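Consider a protein example.
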Amino acid sequence: MFNKLFAMTQIKAAITAVHGHLPDYRLTNQELEKLVDTTDEWISTRTGIKERRILKGPGLATSDMGAEAVKGLLEKSGTSPGEVDLLICATVTPDMKFPAAGNLISHKAGIRNAFSYDLNAACSGFIYALATASSLVESGKYKKAVVVGADKMSSIVDYTDRQTCVLFGDAACAVLLEPTTEELGIIDHRFGTDGSGYLHLHMKAGGSLKPPSHETVDAREHYVYQEGRAVFKFAVTRMAGISMEVMDRNHVNADDVAWLVPHQANMRIIEATGRRIGLPAEKVMVNIQKYGNTTNATIPLCLWDYENQLKKGDNIILTAFGGGFTWGAILVKWAY
């Protein structure tokens, strides 16, 4: 009887809570002026960023921010650590090659009954992880899944490179997914990848292709390498295109969309993506001016910042683009 009822009931995964963690230290454009040949005007005009958070202190890493976000999420939602049965951490800056940052976050947050792991799709990682977790919740086997987007980007940024060091910040944010039989939650998603894009956005050393050595460190090859123009062109085209594809598949037009939540990579990319989809600026979530590009934390941080403006039933488009290249979009019907 249970199996028959289960088969007749369409289970969806709904975001039921969101909570973030930001380091205390604010790295302003004025401070960056003292580090590299740049100005507040140059940074603001080209990126929209005014400041970004930086994790400082001995022994502090991505998992520390992630654990604080998760502990806040559990307290906020009235969930005990023992109730969580899945945790996925989207990150490009795990504490170490292994164990996974997700393992360490679970340990630090007191989560003992879940399996946890990391997912790396560069800046698209959070939405990839969200879709993965939602499928597991929809299977009926998992009741409470946590998806964390966390990165300590300051650990892989070259603060002598004025093109990249102005862009990135550190942060973590987590969402709780739970099953629902209402027409709410994760409705649809589409993703894409083009491995040839690695030429334009990657880290040259540190992997199996080029293991760490004295030479790679001296050559400063353990930092983000990015060709801005190529990335801009691909990001706008892919994010807008795949967002419209998800909208078309679900018969949702621009008027039906309450919010677009784009990856916060660059203000020009955010604005161009919104225009291509046909959304006015007031429907596009933006917080890049406060945090910079926090990679996997950008999209959930937007949801956290705008949480009190969201209404149950709102159609929300999450979209991201990252190194790889990777990109994707998710249609969410807000659940609370």
In short: The chain has a mean pLDDT of 96. The CA atoms of residues 310 and 334 lie 7 Å apart.
